[in-house]
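ligand=nicotinamide-adenine-dinucleotide
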Amino acid sequence: MAEPTEDMTPFEAVNFFFHEAADQLRMPDATRDVLSGTYREIRVQVPLRMDDGAIRTLYGYRVQHNGARGPYKGGVRYHPHADLDEVRALASLMTWKTAIVDVPFGGAKGGVQVDPYELSSAELERLTRRYVAQISYIIGTYRDIPAPDMGTNAQTMAWMMDAYGQRAGHSPGIVTGKPVALGGSLGREAATGRGCIIVATEAVRDLGKDPDDLTLAIQGFGNVGSWAARIAKADGYNIVAVSDVHGAIYDPRGLRIPDLLDHVAETGTVADYPDAERIDDDAILELDVDVLLPAALGGVITKSNADRVKASVIVEGANHPVTPLADHMLADRGVTIVPDLLANAGGVTVSYFEWTQNIQQFHWEEDEVNAELRKRLIKAYQVVRDYARTHDTTLRRAAFILAAERVAESANLRGYL
Ligand code: NAD
């Protein structure tokens, strides 16, 4: 296996970790070829009529990476940088993530290259309906099930379900992360952030530490970051810094999270919160904290700043926030990284519960959802941790090895490897 380089694209970076695992598993070349490529990719033109009558030509993607273990599953991202390579990377991560938490899905991802914050609600709705119409031929309740990701939310899923249902009839299982009133699962909105803190706490306890004694910094205060903050606070962590696209804030005594949430609800950002010090956006990654939770973009911890990261535990709420080179640098320094495959898998785990509830037309109580989520994530974490300990490797390598082994086994049994 070649050494990682800093100019890897997101898909090359995820495949770097896959190939490390494949080396360890002595995976045959033919199997590697299948699992390092994608099954199907589509790029669709999404002409969008703006409120002023002008037409903007946008492009969207849906990539299905591997479906050996079940229907393709993965979010849809609305972001200016959502391109085919990024979507491929995120689709492949979904294959490994669904395998590591052992839910019966494959991996997929979608994206539209657009800044959703520049669009009105009516424009977002038209964009979403058009995008769904364009990809409707390859999605389906037993084929490929979208969900929210950066820049999309429960409302986006409601429009997606409605647009798909106009063609296919009532199909609540076509998307997850829907509003509860339309068949969404209780607990889904909080699930990814909740999952981050469940596995973070397992990891810090394994290091002999207690959340009550630990400081935490969170980059990103959207769905994942803000829910992680609420739950971490309740579990005893002292959250000293948070950031969003508008800026970063810091209070060494600890931020008052309920008050901050009220401020964000009013102003839409953490940036001008009055009861904290404003710091440089990127400084949040380098603060002297115990636990760092990147929960925004990929590729934020790189060769350039990895040496300045002071946290001893990094919990990857975001997908691929650490480049392969930075991953090796941090591992050499003994920093524990709870990889994205585990750290942010709470979302897809509760998406699985939502999908099963839709199929069975049955409704679970929130306590049941949260208890089942906790049980599954802790089990997945423990299996990965035990493998890492036994084989003297990192949690990320252990997770990729176990996931690749499971996907290869299913593909083999189907007879296409
Ligand atoms: P979101 O759109 O709800 O929130 C994103 C947050 O990141 C916002 O607060 C935004 O202001 C902030 N942000 C954007 N650019 C930033 C920058 N340069 N610096 C600092 N902050 C910045 O998105 P989300 O659903 O919370 O997703 C966040 C990450 O978690 C993504 O990497 C996503 O792939 C991953 N993830 C999300 C889910 C889910 O269920 N939503 C599941 C698994 C993984």
